[in-house]
Design a protein that fits this description.
The chain has 305 residues and is an alpha+beta fold. Helices cover 34% and strands 26% of the residues. It contains nine helices and 13 strands. The strands form three sheets. Strands 11-10-9-12-13 form a five-stranded antiparallel beta sheet. It has a four-stranded parallel beta sheet with strand order 2-1-3-4, covered by helices on one side. Strands 5-8-6-7 form a four-stranded antiparallel beta sheet, covered by helices on one side.
């Protein structure tokens, strides 16, 4: 059987026995995308990326949606990604996914003029200390804070994300050493406005803004993800915020079909990029179902016209 598009998820969400509110949201979001693509006349199916029985050459395109176990199985996922890319085409493109999956892309966006947080990258296998990295951040990158965020360059759901203050550096040294043996890390200034004002996620499909949400961390935490008790609220961004989001999308190596642009007010009071998600972002279609049709129409027009 031939398919136009396979909507990709991970095995936990294919036929789950437990239907928590979180899983219900995943299923609803994917269903909205499936139906929108079908309404465009496309032959569509939903599969886990690691489905051992599926022949990826039987689909013209694969659309990444809820492949949210990839960062816990990165070596296995990378092997599959390379193999599948020789059998089908990806939405967004393979080149864009490879670029976006690793947060070294911040360097490219900064070079293109996008305001990003001050960031020091610590490459895998580096012989350095956390204290030494912080001192380099202050002397070479202009860090002006006593609080930092340490996180992996390939990650999601705040995996291995640490808030570190000057007086707790020594307490984090051992975990820092363990982490840089295994993967590249990034050190950033702690952004106080994310805690006090939240983080705005703006959905941009085919370079059209469709909708936005405001993510707020629970009291006493700094992580806005719902995995850690964060909450999501409908949000109406200003024209300048939408323009900033679109400028980020235009700064990517190629224009994505779908993107989520997370922005916040930095410590200097300027809008800055928290993250550009063009691989497998949560897109909150359940808050704006018509946006799923915007994506589906863009896919039909770009790949099937």
């Amino acid at each position: 059987m031939e398919f136009d598009v396979v909507v990709l998820t991970d095995h936990r969400y294919v036929d789950p026995n437990e239907k928590t509110p979180y899983i219900q949201n995943v299923l609803q979001e994917d269903q909205l995308v499936l139906e929108a693509l079908q309404n465009q006349g496309l032959h569509v199916v939903r599969k886990s990326w690691d489905d051992p029985d599926f022949d990826w050459s039987t689909t013209k395109y694969a659309l990444f949606r809820t492949t949210w176990d990839y960062f816990d199985r990165y070596a296995e996922f990378s092997e599959w990604l390379e193999k599948a890319s020789k059998q089908t085409q990806f939405i967004n493109s393979k080149e864009l996914i490879y670029w976006n999956i690793d947060k070294h892309y911040f360097q490219d966006l900064s070079n293109a003029g996008v305001n990003v947080p001050k960031t020091v990258f610590v490459e895998k296998g580096s012989e350095t200390t956390l204290e030494g990295t912080i001192q380099r951040a202050k002397s070479d990158y202009g860090f002006a804070t006593d609080t930092y965020i340490l996180k992996p360059c390939v990650s999601g759901a705040a995996r291995h994300t640490y808030k570190i203050k000057n007086d707790t550096v020594s307490e984090h040294e051992a975990v820092f050493q363990d982490l840089i043996k295994e993967e590249a890390m990034m050190l950033q200034e702690f952004q106080h406005h994310i805690v006090s004002e939240g983080e705005i996620s703006m959905m941009v499909f085919d370079v059209q803004f469709t909708h936005a949400v405001l993510k707020i961390a629970k009291a006493g935490d700094f992580r806005v993800q719902d995995d850690f008790g964060g909450t999501v609220h409908n949000y109406s961004p200003s024209a300048s915020q939408i323009a900033f989001a679109k400028s980020v999308v235009y700064a990517a190596p190629e224009l994505p079909v779908y993107a989520r642009v997370d922005i916040f007010k930095d410590n200097d009071g300027n809008w800055a990029l928290a993250e550009l998600e063009i691989f497998e972002p949560e897109l909150w279609f359940r808050l704006n179902p018509t946006a799923a049709h915007t994506v589906a129409e863009a896919i039909k027009n770009k790949f099937f016209s």
